[in-house]
Amino acid sequence: MTTAPHSVNLEEELAAIWAELLGLTPDAVPADVSFLRLGGDSVLTVRMSALVRRRLNVVLALSDVRVEITLNQLADLVRRRASDEPMTRTLPLQVTRRPDPHAEFPLLPLQQGYFVGQQDGWELSYDSAHYYLDYALRGVDGDEAGDALSDAIERLAVHQPTLRARVTPEGRQRVLADGAPLLKVYDLRASTPQDAAAALAEVRQEMSTRGPDPTSGPGLDIRLTLLPEGEGRLHLGFSLLTFDGWSSGVLSRDLLAYATDWNAVLPPLEVHFGDYVTALADLPKTEAWQADRDWWFSRLDELPLPPALPLAADPKDVRPVTMGNREHRWSAERWSALRRECARREVTPSTAMLTAFAIVLARWSGHRRMLLNSLQLNRLPLHPDLHRVVGAFASTMLLPVELAHGATFAELAAAAQKTSGEHAAHNLITGVEVGRELARRRGTWRPVGPVVFQSVLGVDAAMGSRPPEEAGPLGRIIAGDYFHQLRTPQVALEVRCFEIGDEAVAVFSLVDELFEATQVTAAFTEFVALVDDLADGSGWDLVPQLPETTDLPGGDDGPRLGRLPETASGQYSGPPADDLEQTVAEVFEELLEVPVLDRGADFFALGGDSLLAVRTVVRLAKEIGVTVPVREFLSDPTVAGVAHTARSRMGGS
Question: Which residues form the Carrier domain (predicted)?
């Protein structure tokens, strides 16, 4: 039984936690005012849950702690949890160390999506799904920095075993006994400014377009450029197959802590990413997971299509190399003003950004009802160390948005926050899993959520500290002087909101080849203007101009996102027609564990998914000596269709 906290002190202990998170004094935390009103947000609720577990030994589900909760309500919730009162969201899962830390374990759903994308399985795919970042260093000790950073990487690979993770060709993962990433150092201290700039551009181009790939090496690429006059750049490439956004922050802090002090010792971790994933194997057996699945699946047929943005090209014909960026930075003063305005109206800054983005999309696409994809942290609170562990914990959440005609911005934001909160409360089944079922029902092989909203506003506060500014031999970190590049499969357009110190940044990352540049620039300019109006307070009570149309009907006004033609599978029937089709049918049977007697049997209708498709391709290559491209497999996943593709690869008809 959970040890109940002393009731007399519970409110005081919770007030101390809130004060720590919100930068207040405990006596400035009213018992009847919401966490949101006091300046909290959804990211900080993750940290709040972790602190409650650590200090009070009470486990709260992420769905329990909404931003609208008051201190009184939280105290009541903690007491009920501590008394072991049955609650619908209790997860009977325990994360413990695996007996064999090097044994294989499965990929999580979003990892599976990235993995399939790296096999060119989807349109808008890349050979590596990764995020690249470099930032400036000043006062670098050029003679010591390389050794200090190399030593830090080796120690970090011991502390965080995920740095040694690899992904197998069949789509599973494991942690090697050794194999820390190797540091590459570029010594340009004697170079001319022109030569140094050219060399830096070359490094950026290479790391942006050829990211780390855990199927063949470490999922982390770290490099250091030494420049004249004690300056430098720290380069970081993160595979999305291995690390999520929260992990990149943890990893950077741990790395710099080791680099700053040769004798630094970080608090040990009781569990690691593989332990967490292994514990999740029993999640589908829980009543809570089954309830979330039923909740989502009962709503699938009502979900709208993605925003019908006009396209310059069909995504299936595009082979992007990198994603283009439009970026804006709000000063510390403007960002502080926006946070105050949001708190006054009990709307999170992330929700304000989401609402502004949705308004821009509605005007751009010509309709007010749309489906967006949202990236979520989604670290289930199963162990107090998990917030310090690196790994690919993140998931997605499909988010329907309907902007009411004639409503003020404040009313639209309140509705968006309510919808987002309701959907996030059913986070045990991920957007990838929901999207698979939605695609099956719609009969589409195209991405169902190609427009993404991502916000990590407030993540530094949730982590308990800002990134360090001093790093020993590496000198002073100038985080505001950065360059970054993203490559995310199945995404046409993504807005990312984050903080750099006291400033806020919003970026449109997109596949340039899909859109007219002038339309993108106009949309981003409009987005920035909307947010500026919120910061000065003038935009909240205005009624945004929106299209009359709720859902855009099909038409002949050119290609639009989410309204593109599908490649029809062949119409086949009867038993396998030859030995090749029989072999394909047998491989289907083996991996899907169902009888396959018809040459028209569809892999996905039989229960397959994209990860199993990759495994099927690998198995078929062993059986018939020919590799069927994953994208071609997915375009006609019937027994006869796959056999036809294989036959064409053999040179037959």
Answer: 5-82, 575-650
